[in-house]
Structures are given as C-alpha cells and as structure tokens.
Predict the structure.
Amino acid sequence: MAMDITKLTAVDKEYLTVEEIIKIASAAAIEKYKQMEADKCEQEREKARKNTKRLLKGYKELKEHCEHAVASVENSVPSDLQIVLNEVFNRRGLLKVEAIAASKRRTELIIEHIDAMLAVYKTQCEHREVPYFEILIDFYVNSVPIEDIAIAKSVSERTVYNYLERAEKDISILLWGVQAA
C-alpha cells in the first residue's frame, strides 16, 4: 500500500527511506499513466464518433461519388476518341485519372463497410425493438430535422437526441471496432 506524501508532516518527510520514496514516486507515476491512458481512450472514442458522424452526413455524397466518378479513360469517352486522348494525355494527365480511380476504389470500400455495418445495426435494433437505427438514418442520411423525427416517433426532442447519441456510439463500435469501444 503506497503512502500519500501529501499527508506526511515535515518531520515524517525527513525520515523517509529511499525505498519509501521510490514506492511513492512509482505509485504516483502509475496513477498518472493510468489517467493518461484513460484520456487517450476517451479521445479515440470521441475521434471515432466524430468520424462516424462525418461518414453518415456525407453518406449520400460518397455513394454518388462511387456511382459517377470516372475511373478510366475508357469509361469517360466513346471508344472512337480513345486513341486521340491517349496521344493527348501526357503522364501527368494519366496520373490524374489513376488518382480518381484509386479514390473511387477506396470510397467504394468505405461504402461497402458502412452498408454492411448499417445492416448489422438494423438487425440488432429490430431484434431489441428499439428505434435507434431508424432515427440515425432519418437524421444523418435523410436529413430529417429532429423536430420532425420526434413528431413521427411520438417522443420528445430530448428523447430523439438521446436515441441518436446511443445510435452514434453503437454504430461507431461497429464501424471502428475496439478503438471506439
């Protein structure tokens, strides 16, 4: 059991052994480390939740990007013009097209993950008979105002906020795993 140095008198402090000082310092260091780790975990949870909100707010736009982004020269023009464009495109222009294609692939992967986790969350909410999933989709994906959600669900606006907060935490864990837990 570690001593609390703040409760020692000046006389007591004069007679501390090296071992006692080491124990006190070690206990203080361990406590500080635990607090720093707890703070770090809380920051990671908050970061995951903010990223979840961003993804859900931009969900429609991300889907549109996947559907409409031109990923190759072949997809962007009729084949008659392909030869002319290949001659006109220098290496820098080709790199831009490749960057767009890579961005499209990354976005498609993100959307696939979001869709899969939303399906899991929908099933969980249906099983538990809670409206969290519907409220999450209404608010973030469909941009329905809180007031309208409250009316549609016959609950107070505060309840909608509470449900939304719960849904954000739940879906963050599904999207980001242990980092958001």
